[in-house]
Specification:
The protein is globular, with a radius of gyration of 17 Å. The protein has helices spanning about 5-10, 25-40, 50-60, 65-75, 85-105, 165-180, 185-200; strands at about 110-120, 125-135, 140-150, 155-160, 165. The protein has about 200 residues and is α+β, with helices and mostly antiparallel strands. Strand 2 and strand 3 (about 140-150) form a beta hairpin. The protein has a 5-stranded antiparallel sheet. The longest helix has 22 residues, at about 85-105. The protein has a single domain, classed as Roll (Nuclear Transport Factor 2, Chain: A), CATH 3.10.450.710. About 50% of the residues lie in helices and about 25% in strands. The chain is built from 7 helices and 5 strands; from the N terminus they run αααααβββββαα.
Length: about 200
């Protein structure tokens, strides 16, 4: 299974927009998966409708911590930005991630998630899972680990690791390379250009 699809599936599982911190991270993810699976079932094997994609996107947006992901991805550069610049970056970053994973959504993929275990240390947690998928008679197994942090009484995901490939590490490496070579304004310009291309 291609990384893009695996990542989309991993992000789609994050759907507990109203989940309280009283629940463990694993309990939240299990309920989340049921919610997304129900929406995809409504597509009856075809591509999700625009309305269905928007519903999944709203669910994911309530749980994925874009600001934390942006902060960790920019590393030292984050501290150099003014509040308005940070807000602008988070919004552009969020729009790019949303459009990327929504494009990868597949309602005709049968999948089963097995939650292995969770590690909770204070305000940080990791949930380990395995996803078995089948599409057109072909099966694949993917490991997906979620890194979460406690925010305002809720668990928020800031990294999704698919088959040892970290979403956060990938972004951090890409951003650092561009900033070192061309500066932060160039990074933001490239992201906005990419966003305009995906809008066409």
């Amino acid at each position: 299974m291609r990384f893009g699809i695996a990542l989309a599936l991993g992000l789609a599982v994050l759907s507990a927009s109203g989940a309280a911190f009283a629940f463990t991270p694993m309990q939240v993810l299990k309920k989340s998966n049921d919610d997304v699976r129900q929406i995809l079932k409504q597509a009856k094997g075809g591509p999700p409708s625009t309305e269905q994609k928007e519903r999944i996107k709203r669910i994911v947006n309530g749980f994925l911590d874009y600001e934390e992901l942006a902060k960790r991805s920019l590393s030292d550069q984050w501290g150099k930005l003014k509040p308005a610049q940070r807000n602008e970056f988070v919004q552009v970053f969020r729009d790019l991630i949303e459009r990327n994973y929504v494009k990868q959504l597949r309602s005709n993929i049968e999948y089963e998630i097995q939650y292995k275990d969770e590690e909770v240390k204070g305000a940080d947690a990791v949930v380990h899972s395995t996803v078995r998928t089948e599409r057109k008679g072909r099966s694949a197994e993917t490991t997906i680990d979620y890194k979460l942090t406690e925010k305002a009484g809720r668990w928020a995901v800031y990294d999704v690791i698919t088959d040892d490939v970290s979403l956060l590490r990938n972004y951090r490496s890409q951003f650092a390379r561009i900033i070192e070579r061309d500066g932060y304004p160039s990074l933001l310009a490239k992201m906005k250009k990419k966003l305009s291309e995906t809008s066409e």
